[in-house]
Amino acid sequence: MSNFFIDRPIFSSVISLIIALAGIATYFSLPVEQFPDIVPPTVSVTATYPGASSTVLAETVAVPIEEKVNGVDNMIYFASSSDNNGNMNMMLTFDIGTDPDMATV
Question: Residues 42-63: pLDDT tens digits?
């Protein structure tokens, strides 16, 4: 069977080109729902402490929350930031496929 394609390189090239064009055509007709999830789910935790500086906010609010959140199932990493307006924001990133609703709980 392979000798047939070796003896006819132009025919082999045309068949390969047809297969590639069919793949490209089906790629554009594939619904978005069928694409895999490639963005890991994230959960945002916000806290306010009116009148607190960023240092006080980090020590009294962010550190205790970070200690409780550390080690949550399927969590990849987290990052937190505090500002001088009394606002703290923490972003937790989870493995792909983790249910965001369950991660929030």
Answer: 999 999 999 888 889 888 989 9
Return d(Cα 100, Cα 102) in angstroms, integer.
5
Q: Would you give the DSSP letter of residue 83?
A: -
**Residue in this structure with the two tokens 């994230």, named with its chain if needed:** 42
How far apart (Å, rounded) are the C-alpha atoms in residues 105 and 84?
A: 28
What is the model's pTM?
A: 0.60
Give the percent of the chain with pLDDT over 70: 97
CA separation, residue 42 to residues 73, 74, 83, 92 (Å): 13, 11, 21, 5
Q: What is the DSSP letter of 32?
A: G
Coarse DSSP helix, strand, coil percentages of the chain, rounded to the nearest 5 percent: 50, 20, 30
